[in-house]
Amino acid sequence: GTWNGTTKVAVKTLKPGTMSPEAFLEEAQIMKRLRHDKLVQLYAVVSEEPIYIVTEFMSQGSLLDFLKDGDGRYLKLPQLVDMAAQIAAGMAYIERMNYIHRDLRAANILVGDNLVCKIADFGLARLIEDNEYTARQG
């Protein structure tokens, strides 16, 4: 879609039976709290049914598809390393904010123009308390 007649946006909607409206809206709350240039930007939320999340549009789609079927197949190592560094910068920010993404994979990274990579899909993200990192034997 188009936001304010000028900005391309992606509209995510809750498909019936996939997850609870509360969980879907919690993802939006996390996106609202986490703002970084390597995280997909949240623009708006419609919190009444039908529920929608409006985010920035990433022109090349998921990193998985981009590397398997798109122009990403032809990238050289320096470009791939730069993309990995962008993802690492986004993940470092998430950690600084005391969150864990819990589902980082190529399908949840979106690629825009000029090989810009941004982390998306915060459905499994979780806030951690400072004392929650404890060593476990196993």
From TrEMBL:
InterPro entries, A to Z: Kinase-like_dom_sf, Non-receptor_tyrosine_kinases, Prot_kinase_dom, Ser-Thr/Tyr_kinase_cat_dom, Tyr_kinase_AS, Tyr_kinase_cat_dom
Domain Protein kinase: residue ranges: 1-138
Keywords for the protein's UniProt record, in alphabetical order: ATP-binding, Kinase, Nucleotide-binding, Transferase
Annotated transmembrane regions: none
Coiled coil start-end: none
GO terms assigned for molecular function: ATP binding; protein tyrosine kinase activity
Listed name of the protein: YRK kinase
Protein's organism: Calonectris borealis
